[in-house]
Amino acid sequence: MTYTPFYLLGETRPSRWLITCDHATNTVPPQVDGGDLGMMREDMERHIAYDVGAYDMAQHLGALLDAPVIASNFSRLVIDPNRGEDDPTLLMKLYDGSIIPANRHADAAEVERRLNLCYRPYHDELARMAALPHAVILSVHSFTRQLRGRPPRPWEVGVLYADDDRLARPLIELLNADGLCVGDNEPYSGHLPGDAIDKHAIETGRPNVLIEVRNDLIAEHHGQREWAERLAPILQQALVASGL
User: Fold this and answer.
1) Over the chain, what is the mean pLDDT?
2) Is this structure's pTM higher than 0.85?
3) How far apart are CA 59 and CA 39, in angstroms?
4) How many CB atoms lie within 10 A of CB 36?
5) Is domain 6-242 given the CATH code 3.20.20.80 in the classification?
């Protein structure tokens, strides 16, 4: 069976939104250590391997917004598509207390091989879709409620952005008005040089926003659907309010 490093759903949908999901799956391609990073199953089901619930929620959002969805089909532990190629965290050897055995001795040649197998095809397709003149990028992620040894995170949803906050500001206001506990560039900063938003939106001046939903809220199917149904009209209102 041929391995494909990304999913593209609803390519011809007419919405201005282009929904991306960088950490959609915990797939390890068969070409990478025979499809096994040497991790315990429970670790591969954690946030360290992918954004739990994000891809299913993104699919629901795509249907509700009539928007195309592009998603990675490889674990962030194989190689992280939301990092620049020169980022030291592009290929993690230790993440939130877990060692990644197949990555411990990965050299520059192995990184290049994984870039060509997974990372670059995904970004090439994302760039093709983002080149549509009307596109507004919505990057969908999830975050864990608590990192090991850290305090619990209070937010239900985070809105991340860099200098371009034209869409983020009205979205934060509307989410707050809906009674949600909203992180303003939390649980982390909304910009890393060379990350997916930087590469496909900031460098080209394309409108964009990144949302992070706490993964315990969308771990199950009903939560994914409920959050998509809650977020879709708010996103539409934010886009209108932004004047973009």
Assistant:
1) 95
2) yes
3) 28
4) 12
5) no
